[in-house]
Design a protein that fits this description.
The structure is a homodimer. By secondary structure, chain A is an alpha+beta fold. Chain A folds into two domains: 137 residues, Jelly Rolls, CATH 2.60.120; 64 residues, Orthogonal Bundle (Arc Repressor Mutant, subunit A), CATH 1.10.10. The first copy, chain A, has a four-stranded antiparallel beta sheet, with no helix packed on it. In chain A, strand 4 and strand 5 form a beta hairpin. The longest helix of chain A has 25 residues. The interface between A and B is large, with 44 and 43 residues. Chain A binds a DNA duplex through helix 6.
Chain lengths: 210, 210
DNA sequence: AAAAATCTGTTGCCACGGCAACGAAATTCA
DNA sequence: TGAATTTCGTTGCCGTGGCAACAGATTTTT
């Protein structure tokens, strides 16, 4: 309960309302062990989940058969909540990176769902939409250096200096869709030129524009 | 009314329900002339719109000051509907490409909104989310040729042969984020190799895999 | 119908960045 | 604590694809 109260989905709701809504959404807690597949690409989905413990990862097989990592989910994050409102099959496979505890919810009857919860749901989905939009904006920048800088610059104004990025190098490269070694190379150059400094995923920018 | 009934937002609702909901959403029709700005990047937005007539275009200025076209909207499409559920400022500027007629709706009180309309709204937003997701999937393909082919291949299975794409060359290049001339060059090559044929935005694929 | 504007194809140049391969550092596991 | 695994930086190679510039075709404007 303590945990549920802090979830964005239940923001602004009383404990009683939360309990009643979970009931209405046929909530049930479950465990899955490392390696399990929660959602299979191509499947139809009619319930969504909240990750109470553990880590998940979204995989996608492209048309040519190559596999790519789409997203990584941590505690408190939701999955499948967008899918249940689409008529399309799951475009990604969701795998448990570790043993997980999950709160399953759905199917959802909107006429019996609390407006606050619906609002929270919409906010969450909207946020995820703009997150994708942002990623696309970065990927539209042709020069790798400018792409990296735009990303770091945004993080810097959002989080101050120094700041951390929620990625390891591989993840950061994937997000900016660049090659990992190319990313490392460019970061080194920028460090040598005095544009920034970093250690692992902790960065400091020394200039505000390129 | 005739027109409203066919909008995805009002799908499955009776005329009476539609009218009542428009009233609850403080709906008002408006006109804007070519060149007007409907939403300015950075602004807060508390109402959304449905394009009844005309064409709109979304622009975005990157961190380095360069302008890029993000999207183009046609009759029946909504705009701002995701924004009103976010706490972030508008990431794009929306400009009228032609004279337009618009139905403005909002602010929205979820507790007074018909569940069906909420469902339609969620479906629409979910659809837009997966559309972005798809675009990102394409952009993740490193080889331009494979990127183009993945795109055309998907359109082909969805729409048969021959099929049309909703873009001119510029738009298609932007969507696949590629350079227009590079796109033309690659399409030519593929045509010469007998992989496909095309005229303007009408394509025919001759192979199903690359 | 002429003129202006837009869209499309083509081509040469060449640098950016993907790829592979390797070693070092760091983290995880036994 | 040592071994195994993963992460990260570095470097050489070289092909892809961005860029610029131009011509023809198509569309729109007046």
């Amino acid at each position: 309960m303590e945990q549920l109260r802090n979830l964005p989905l239940f923001a602004g709701m009383t404990d009683g309302e939360i309990e009643r809504q979970i009931e209405a959404l046929r909530g049930q807690r479950g465990r899955v062990e490392k390696g399990s597949v929660l959602i299979r690409q191509g499947e139809r989905v009619d319930r969504f989940g909240i990750l109470l413990e553990g880590r998940l990862q979204g995989h996608q097989v492209d048309a040519d058969g190559s596999l790519s990592v789409v997203s990584t989910l941590g505690v408190g994050m939701m999955f499948g909540e967008i899918l249940i409102f689409s008529d399309c099959p799951a475009p990604v496979t969701l795998v448990a990176l570790t043993d997980c505890r999950i709160l399953w919810l759905g199917p959802m009857d909107l006429s019996r769902t609390h407006p606050t919860l619906i609002g929270n749901l919409l906010s969450t989905i909207a946020g995820e939409y703009w997150a994708l939009h942002q990623k696309i904006a970065y990927c539209g920048i042709v020069s790798l250096r400018k792409r990296i800088f735009a990303f770091l610059s945004d993080r810097s104004v959002a989080a101050g200096v120094p700041f951390t990025v929620p990625f390891d190098r591989n993840g950061m490269a994937a997000y900016l869709n660049a090659d990992r070694s190319a990313l490392s190379r460019e970061l080194s150059r920028m460090r040598n030129e005095g544009i920034l400094d970093y250690h692992k995923n902790r960065f400091t920018l020394f200039v505000s524009a390129l």
